[in-house]
Design goal:
- The protein has about 375 residues and is an alpha/beta fold.
- Strands 14-13-12-11-7-10-9-8-15 form a nine-stranded mixed sheet, covered by helices on one side. A six-stranded parallel sheet has the order 3-2-1-4-5-6, with helices on both faces.
- Strand 2, helix 2 and strand 3 form a beta-alpha-beta unit.
- Helix 4 runs parallel beside helix 5.
- It is globular and about 65 Å long.
- About 50% of the residues are buried.
- The model has no long low-confidence stretch (mean pLDDT about 95).
Length: about 375
Amino acid sequence: MTYTAGIIGTGGIAGMGILGMHDEDVIGTEKIEASHAGGYEHADGIELVAVADIDEENLATFGDAWDLSPNQQYLGHEAMLAAEDLDVVSVCTPSYLHHQHTVDAARSAADPDVVWCEKPIASQVNEAEEMVAVCEETETELVINHSFRFTEKLQRLRDLVRKRDLLGDVKSVSTQYRMELMRNSTHVLDTLVYLLDTRAEQVSGYITGENEAVDSLDAMLDVDDAGGGGHVVMDDGSFVTVDCTIPRDVSSMTLNFIGTEGKLYMNNDDGVWQYWSLEDGEHVEKPLPGIDGAWTWEDDYRRSFANAAVHVQDILNGEQENLSPGTDATRSLEIIVGFYLSHYTGSTVDVPLAQPLRAVPITSW
């Protein structure tokens, strides 16, 4: 059977293209593969039948690019959710709107079985938790688009680390990525949570106050999101450092793991995987079993949307469990919010966050 999909929001990640990632002259004029619409086009069993936005011009541009007729374009998500019977709804709006749009979709007459929501899950922890609760209540599967979970290489690495004990007990992890924390750090922190199945216990953060998206992405909205980072003590005893303080053009997405049985270095921008097994007190470099080729942003990120849409289809078919649930995405959000709270209060923050702190919003795109 063919499932029906609708998208809330016509921004870059929905299918228009993003300034800084795509050439300006193709934005809104070409079908962008690394997008929700691109994912649906790849999945043989899902058809994109509707899109909603509050901007009529953006709606028309998106409709032209993705061959959606005017009667498939809705001014406001409420109109789309009231008029359409949808199997899956993509939420591609700014992160501070994810909560409302996800809850509205899950409780709507459209009655989707899956909500595929962009990362980060929300702008505050209590809203993320409500999204999870409402989706459970309505029997809607909430899939968060942390892209690397949908790549074969990272799925294989997770199996090696968690099931085959590749690294033993992980003691230390250091990560680096470009500013800002909500927009970018969510990728590295979710990768950490995905590989180690861990949760923060204590967070100490630093915020630079700088946001390059205002210039590089031509973003006009005033938001809280900024460069920063900090230290995290996880509930498995591992110690994590996060650095998202430097601009895109000089940064790399890197993760460096040190465990009792080996160490692993990953650099997404340079396409590097390096693994050393600890043998008789010495680290011996070895290939990662079952993982071929480089780990590159261009290859893995681009294909992740197609893989994610196929995964959504598998969920709809009852063939797979959710690889990227909202409960996991809330763990990475807790760390990011903790960084801000720590910086502005001058203190170490405990996780789970105390109830009043769960309502602190960190706005981003």
